[in-house]
Amino acid sequence: MQGLPLVGVGADWLSAWDLPIREGRAAALPGEVVVGATAARRLGLAPGDRVQADPDDLYNLGGPVPLPLTVVGVLQGSPLPEDGALLTPVQTLWALDGALHGHAEAATGADPWSALHLHGDVDEQPISAFVLRPASPRARDLLLAEVDALPDRMAVQPGSLWATLVEAATLPRRLALAWLGAASVALLALTGVVLDLSQRSRAPTLALLRALGGGPGLIRGLFALELALLALLGAGMAGLGLAGVALLLRVAEATP
């Protein structure tokens, strides 16, 4: 629906989730919708307005005809997902999918929803998902076990599912940061080893400089210059490493 979800819900959905209506009433008949506060503000809808349902496939000329939907209510603002959605009875979605049919009445200009009727059994119509609210943790565990035993059903817990998705989404970033931290420690250790070896290998040269009158300041300056050159080299390597990590993160985030 113009970029916003149209969700088919049961008659007790609003009361079950404590979603009060700010204007109008709840949707009771096919073709009626209740709009979330954010969705109503975005689309400029109020009770009594009509909005056209988006067709699933613009190129399917033989598909279901888009039907007008009547706004009968607007919800109060809330942090729930319903705030940005349009809610309608599930029969509305069945009609939009072509499960409900109309005949002559729909062609005479009358209300197309009054001419629609169902071909087939109500129990055979699709329900993509439903929400269960167990009374206790034990009931929840028993329900999950029962649903998991069915080969064509799946039960998810929103909290744990969200945590799993967040963990999967942030895994590449965490691995990249861990790799960067390990590389930084290794680089520091390598720098210390190089400086120690440099001092040991140059011990005869430093002794000669001292014999020729080179003071401690000259020797410290030489070591400071060497350290600065190593720091510049390390900064360059770190820059390349960060660029590589950024590239890997972009590839990982873009990969479905």
Which residues form runs of ≥5 with pLDDT under 50? 104-108
In total, how many domains does the architecture comprise? 2
Which class best fits the helix and strand makeup?
A: alpha/beta
Count every beta strand, where a strand is a DSSP E run of 2 or more residues.
8
Task: Please report the distance between the alpha carbons of the first and last residues.
Answer: 25 Å
Question: Could you report the average pLDDT, rounded to the nearest whole number?
Answer: 77
Count of discrete alpha- or pi-helical segments spanning 4 or more residues: 8
Run of helices and strands: EHEEHEEEHEHEHHHH
Multimeric organization: single chain
* Helical fraction: 40-55%
Largest sheet: 6 strands, mixed
Strand fraction: 5-15%
What's the gyration radius in Å?
A: 34 Å
What global shape is seen? elongated
Observed structural traits:
256 residues; alpha/beta; two-stranded antiparallel ribbon; 12% strand
Detailed description of the structure:
The protein is an alpha/beta fold. The protein folds into two domains: 126 residues, no CATH class; 91 residues, no CATH class. 49% of the residues lie in helices and 12% in strands. The strands form two sheets. Strands 1, 2, 3, 4, 5 and 6 form a six-stranded mixed sheet that branches. Strands 7-8 form a two-stranded antiparallel sheet. Helix 6 packs antiparallel against helix 8. The longest helix is centred in the last third of the chain and has 44 residues. The protein is elongated. The protein starts with 5 loop residues before the first strand and ends with a helix.
